[in-house]
């Protein structure tokens, strides 16, 4: 079977990608930031033979040369010893047997930054271009790289289009990103994705590229998570509602009125390495429009036992002239049949309640 390098394998989205890859028979080597995270991945897949799944530690994906060195670790007898062995930094791209595909989900992000250039913008750009340089130099068998970008690289708050699609780009400038904190994250995603496309255009590597551009991502948690304090940003909204932290009828602003389920997004990543025509394309991976009111209504509908913790008459902030979206590339080319918001919320809430008990 083909072999895939999956970066950031312990993350919210990547954990779902890993499940799909293994279910479809791929051999997977994933990067993690620590031995503990790698061992947790092994523990979550006890029935998977070690030759089908391995991990290496890359402590900082933005470090120069982080993916350059050779990872020659292959599971052999005795497996227990190899499962507990980690490699410091930079050992991912070269492997034996060689890689066929790379799915790059790992991207530095945190909201508590003081220097947007050093702590957010440069790490995002360097992490993306760094792995592409390493693949070109050391992994000649890789045929395609799929990168997790974001709707943040598509959204336009200056001149909102009537319909968002893959031709849309965020017009954020470097000056805005370094001076306006709210623009720093959007800039990091936009500049990192643009750097990836520029790399392919100017370096003419042996692989092609596809990018995933999801908006807010909801869905059940399957990665190792011991506290709801460490949830991804989108799911924190659902957590706050089911914990009774937002009982006012005036809800937090929706902000981005597009969403997707993490399982559909994960499948889109995998389909992007399976569908030949996906190469060279961006994908707006969204299930459609929603709002905070619709989210609350979905929680009440799927988990009526939580009604007392929810706003009784939530106000919908969806504007009358809300933008549209075109997700036909994801549905038609990748074959994604998106879940409804109610389906996603039902499974997400159940997942969060399980972690909190």
UniProtKB/TrEMBL annotation:
Q: Which UniProt keywords apply?
A: Oxidoreductase
Q: So what EC number does this one have?
A: 1.1.1.283
Q: Which Pfam families match?
A: Epimerase (PF01370)
**NAD-dependent epimerase/dehydratase domain location:** 4-281
GO MF annotation: an example: methylglyoxal reductase (NADPH) activity
Oxidoreductase as a keyword of this entry, yes or no, is yes
Top enzyme class, one word, equals oxidoreductase
User: Into which family does the record put it?
Assistant: Belongs to the NAD(P)-dependent epimerase/dehydratase family. Dihydroflavonol-4-reductase subfamily.
Protein name (database record): Methylglyoxal reductase (NADPH-dependent) gre2
């Amino acid at each position: 079977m083909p072999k895939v390098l999956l970066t950031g394998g312990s993350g919210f989205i990547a954990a779902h990608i890993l499940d799909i890859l293994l279910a479809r028979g791929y051999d997977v080597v994933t990067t993690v930031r620590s031995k503990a995270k790698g061992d947790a991945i092994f523990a979550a897949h006890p029935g998977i033979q070690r030759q089908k799944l391995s991990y290496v530690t890359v402590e900082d994906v933005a470090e120069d040369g982080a993916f350059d060195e050779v990872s020659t670790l292959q599971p052999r007898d005795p497996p227990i010893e190899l499962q507990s062995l980690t490699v410091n930094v930079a050992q991912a791209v070269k492997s034996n047997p060689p890689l066929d595909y790379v799915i790059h989900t790992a991207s530095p992000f945190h909201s508590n930054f003081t220097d947007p250039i050093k702590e957010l913008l440069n790490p995002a750009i360097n992490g993306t271009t760094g792995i592409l340089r390493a693949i070109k130099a050391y992994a000649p068998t890789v045929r395609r790289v799929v990168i997790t970008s974001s709707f943040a690289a598509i959204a336009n708050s200056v001149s909102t289009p009537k319909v968002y699609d893959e031709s849309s780009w965020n017009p954020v400038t470097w000056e805005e990103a370094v001076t306006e904190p709210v623009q720093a994250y959007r800039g990091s995603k936009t500049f990192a994705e643009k750097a990836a496309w520029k790399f392919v255009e100017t370096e003419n590597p042996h692989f092609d590229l596809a990018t995933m551009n999801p908006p807010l991502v909801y869905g059940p948690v399957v990665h190792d998570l011991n506290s709801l304090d460490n949830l991804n940003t989108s799911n924190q909204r659902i957590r706050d509602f089911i914990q009774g932290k937002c009982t006012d009828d005036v809800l937090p602003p929706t902000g981005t009125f597009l969403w997707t389920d993490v399982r559909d997004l994960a499948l889109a990543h995998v389909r992007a390495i399976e569908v030949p025509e996906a190469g060279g394309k961006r994908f707006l991976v969204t299930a459609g429009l929603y709002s905070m009111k619709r989210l609350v209504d979905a929680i009440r509908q799927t988990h009526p036992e939580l009604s007392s913790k929810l706003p009784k008459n939530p106000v919908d902030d969806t504007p009358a002239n809300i933008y549209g979206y075109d997700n036909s590339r994801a549905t038609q080319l990748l074959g994604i049949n998106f879940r409804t918001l109610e389906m996603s919320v039902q499974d997400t809430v159940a997942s969060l309640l399980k972690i909190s008990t």
